[in-house]
Design a protein that fits this description.
This protein is α/β, with parallel strands linked by helices and 256 residues long. It has one domain: 3-Layer(aba) Sandwich (Rossmann fold). It contains ten helices and seven strands. It has a seven-stranded mixed sheet, covered by helices on one side. The radius of gyration is 19 Å and the shape is globular.
């Protein structure tokens, strides 16, 4: 049993390293420029702050593909002008949406100082630095210092990915303030009771749709058709420890 566990740990570490190497290889082959999808043309930092293993998924356009589709649909149908990204990492969404001209202004919150530097560097790389503001951690205590009482949340689309802290951030008070926004929250399976409580609170102001990460159509990405199945699978892999799950929140009282 001991040697089997040791072998499995070794194979896991080896596979993870190989996964990162594959993704780096394909990022270099494409000069770190997104080739397909909503963010096509986006230049990525070569020294990624967050997850270096998902570079291939970003380059080929299928990183969090379902989320990208929903963002595009919501932003266009509801004429969103401002994108608020809570947990912005390297700014893939914050900067990519500016570059695609789907939104006009981006507000990025990233608690890690290296992440903040990476976002600013990437914004300059893509020449959108004048359309983005980058801040540190957003929480219930400092929320209103960033958003005044007359801030137009109706024109805003919020994307949140904060590794389980969503259960702390989205209090009843905050949900009431942002009740006219469209919101996408990545839900992390850290506490079932907290998830159920948040869902109950959310439903007072929003309809809720749950979507999952689903990459099953690579027909349009001809550049990876000739790869072997293992390499292609590692490019699709985002290195998650659980299946990606998001809540799509639509305001109940949008006309008010």
């Amino acid at each position: 049993m001991f040697f089997n566990n040791l072998k499995n740990k070794f194979l896991y570490k080896f596979t993870k390293k190989y996964w990162k190497n594959i993704n780096f290889k394909h990022a270099k082959l494409n000069n770190y420029i997104v080739q397909n999808g909503l963010m096509k043309g986006l230049k990525l930092n070569q020294d990624q702050f967050w997850n270096k293993g998902d570079l291939g998924a970003k380059i080929y356009g299928f990183y969090e593909q379902e989320v990208q589709k929903r963002i595009s649909k919501i932003a266009i149908n509801h004429k969103k002008t401002t994108f608020i990204n809570i947990g912005a990492a390297d700014g893939f969404f914050s900067i990519g949406l500016l570059l695609s001209k789907i939104i006009k202004k981006s507000i990025a919150f990233e608690m890690n100082i290296n992440g903040q530097k990476s976002i600013l560097k990437n914004a300059k790389l893509n020449k959108v630095e004048n359309s983005i503001k980058v801040y540190g951690e957003l929480n219930e205590k400092n929320f209103q210092s960033f958003f005044s009482n007359n801030f137009n949340f109706k024109n805003s689309l919020i994307l949140c990915d904060i590794e389980g802290f969503e259960y702390e951030l989205f209090s009843k008070k905050i949900l009431k303030i942002i009740q006219y926004s469209h919101i996408i929250i990545e839900i992390h399976p850290t506490d079932k009771n907290k998830e159920e409580k948040l869902l109950k609170d959310v439903k007072k102001h929003f309809t809720v749709e749950t979507i999952f990460n689903n990459i099953n159509n690579l027909n349009q990405i001809s550049s990876i058709h000739d790869l072997n199945d293992i390499e292609r699978s590692l490019l699709i892999c985002e290195g998650r420890s659980f299946i990606g799950k998001w809540w799509i929140l639509s305001p109940l009282n949008l006309d008010k």
